[in-house]
Amino acid sequence: MEKYTETQRRILEVGKKEFLAKGFRDASLRGIVKDAGFTQGAFYGYYSDKAALFDALVSEAADSLTDQFKAAQEAHYDLIPEDKAAESRDLSKDYLNHFINYIYDNFDAFKLVICCSEGTRYAGYIHDLVEIEVVQTENYHARLRQLGKLKGTVSHELHHMITSAYFTAVFETVAHDMTREQAIDYVNELATFFNCGWDGLLRLE
């Protein structure tokens, strides 16, 4: 069974084009319906409003990345009992490369989320990922500190600012329409730069 009807595919296609051109807030539902060649009644047979259409275009990819990100955070805890916490930077880099490829496999969805989502529940997407990262990493650091494997400290405020800068920089790949190859090179250089700073602050043993 096909996932979408021909009518639904046409609405999604035109909706994506409208959102990419104008952003969610300025996109016109009337214009989307008109360009799709259907009545508003046909539209409402599939989506309750403009926000529901935007969700249909981005939610699967964006929510899946969030779930994968949470799972990656948990994977770091597996390093502790194996006395491999020093490998956490390499693990983070491996996941980063996985994530950037996933983003590029779903580029249009993430372009909508990063550049066109003001007014939707995805407007704070990067901030939400930052919050997850900070909470999980601080808990991870606390565990390492209890075991005597982490000597340095960093304030919550600085941790949040550094993480926010890092995540914003990663998603610049999408904002600036880098090619996949450019993006992979860029984020790996970025990770090296930020990891050197973290190593200097935290002094993992």
From TrEMBL:
DNA-binding region extent: 28-47
InterPro entries, per database record: Homeodomain-like_sf, HTH-type_Tx_Regulator, HTH_TetR
Residues of the HTH tetR-type domain: 5-65
Keywords assigned: DNA-binding
Pfam families linked to this entry: TetR_N (PF00440)
MF terms in GO: DNA binding
Name this protein carries in UniProt: TetR/AcrR family transcriptional regulator
Source organism (scientific name): Lientehia hominis
